[in-house]
Amino acid sequence: MKFSLTLLAAALVASANAFVPAPAFGVQRSSQLNAEKDPKRYGKYDDMLWDMTAKLEIYGEWDPAKPRSPWNFNPFETWDGNSPDASGWFPGQNTFKDPTRGDINFASMQEERKILDDIIANPKEGNVPGAPGCKN
Hints:
Elements: H1 2-17, H2 34-37, H3 52-61, H4 106-121
């Protein structure tokens, strides 16, 4: 019995070590992604509340004639049915971060719908497919 418990403990320790990455030449590498180190990869509202007020501010600053970036994107643009995060990244892209969303209710959704309908009816000059500031 004592031998079985010792054998079981050794097997558990050995199997747990199998999932620990081995350091390369005795040096432990950082698991932090380069994208997290570069502040230019994330926009103005990264890790902040991503609500209609924030989106309207980013939309107001967006220039479709300039290249798309975390600091220049249309927050109302969709790609494969998805909306961008607070830096213009879409789900599936390795830099996408699930944004912090505010509370929402039906009445506020109706107000937001009016704003979105106005944006759709009156697109910014230069907001055409293939423009440098557009995803599509």
